[in-house]
Amino acid sequence: MSSKRAVLALLALTLVATPLIAEDSISAKLALTPPMGWNSWNKFACNVSEDMIKSMAEAMVKSGMKEAGYQYVVIDDCWQVNRDAAGNIVADPQRFPSGIKSLADYVHSLGLKFGIYSDAGSKTCAGRPGGLGHEYQDALQYAAWGVDYLKYDWCSTTTQDAKASYANIRAALDASGRPIVLSICEWGKAQPWLWGKEVGGNLWRTTGDIQDRWRGKKEWKPGDCCSYGALDIADEEAGLYSYAGPGHWNDPDMLEVGNGGMTDVEYRSHFSLWAILAAPLIAGNDLRSMRPEIHDILTNKEVIAIDQDPLGMQGRRVFRNETGEVWVKQLKGGNRAVILLNRGASEQSISVTWEQLGYPDQLTANVRDLWQHKDLAKTSGKFGVAVPSHGVVMVTIKP
Ligand code: GLA
């Protein structure tokens, strides 16, 4: 073996022996706050096309969503139809006649970022070709197209090991040389919060798919659990706060705000909970035709600032009884964001104590209501208020 080949072989061995992600890798610097964007699945499922995605990117700019921080425009399942003779993934030529590169260029020309979807197994969840065995080939293709974000699903994975599969696609993405956010979509089955950061995942789904309803788990089909209402997902995430942080987030799934299955009060609660959970804020509605109420929820900058707080701490539930809850998120600089949540059928008074915030009782603090955009009275010891059924009061508390 020539010395050059020996060095290459040694390098290859080193790469194989260190599959996990280094602190200084390109991917370790991505998504330092929870990613914000839009994804096609919740509203459009397989009905995706380049015209629709282009008009959605335009709407993201025109509606003020971009200005509020939304950035990634992500095509979910069904953009792909097969592989060519060389194994390259092929986009649907009817629905994407100009090709994915041209679409990504257009999205970039609007100052936005572009995301795409594939799957760790042989087929995607909608039965399109998956990434298995093509990870490095696909990663190079995505990089050449200008992909900035990859959602990687978990259908048709039979006996695959989740951690190894996601480590593999992350290594492939990094080898492409392009910084690409990796969204692990494994539904929480193999507890990705325990290994997602280590393999360079920037976010990982914690549950099965969200459905556009306030609460209630439903089996997909007998024996196959589950789709989740907004409250059920919040319940599942309540214990996972210690795993989230800058660059690596628990993902309670994409937003349903504006899709019609909840009241505006419930959508406000859904959005507030996602913000206190430091969740990726990926809108899933039709941005081209939002009612003003929906627009005002999705672009509430004070609530978004809680989600995007640079300290990157996920909020915790510090109190619950049958129908009332208190959630607290520590913010950079020592302030707290608080949600008082009423899960019950009638209005009730809910309060947070300074003890629950980790503050001394006598400390005086300003309270600001993030939905009314209004400073409330200074107070100490506790803050309580009437909360409507299925609603929240969301405040920041600033000593
Ligand atoms: C799974 C994912 C969804 C969506 C669909 C697409 O169900 O969890 O978010 O991507 O697949 O087929």
Structure description:
The protein has 399 residues and is of the alpha/beta class. The chain folds into 2 domains: 305 residues, Aldolase class I (TIM Barrel, Alpha-Beta Barrel), CATH 3.20.20; 83 residues, Sandwich (Immunoglobulin-like). It contains 12 helices and 21 strands. An 8-stranded parallel β-sheet has the order 11-8-7-6-5-2-1-12. Strands 13, 14, 15, 17, 18, 19 and 21 form a 7-stranded antiparallel β-sheet that branches. The protein has a two-stranded antiparallel sheet with strand order 3-4. Strand 14 and strand 15 form a beta hairpin. Helix 3 packs parallel to helix 5, helix 6 crosses helix 7 and helix 9 packs parallel to helix 10. About 3% of the residues have low confidence. Alpha-D-galactopyranose (GLA) binds next to loops. The site of alpha-D-galactopyranose has 9 residues, from loops.
Q: How much is the average pLDDT?
A: 95
| Annotated CATH homologous superfamily of the largest domain | Aldolase class I
Q: What is the CATH topology descriptor of the largest domain?
A: TIM Barrel
Q: What are the low-pLDDT stretches, counting only 5+ consecutive residues below 50?
A: 10-19
Number of helices: 12
Give the helix/strand layout:
Elements lengths: L2 H15 L18 E4 L1 H4 L5 H13 L2 H4 L3 E3 L5 E4 L5 E3 L8 H10 L3 E7 L15 H11 L3 E5 L8 H14 L5 E4 L18 E3 L12 E4 L2 E4 L2 H8 L11 E3 L12 H13 L4 E3 L8 H7 L2 H7 L8 E5 L3 E7 L5 E7 L5 E6 H4 L6 E6 L4 E2 L3 E2 L1 E6 L4 E7 L1
Parallel strand pairs: 1-2, 1-12, 2-5, 5-6, 6-7, 7-8, 8-11
Antiparallel strand pairs: 3-4, 9-10, 13-14, 14-15, 15-21, 16-20, 17-18, 17-19, 17-21
Bound molecules: alpha-D-galactopyranose.
Alpha-D-galactopyranose (GLA) binds next to loops.
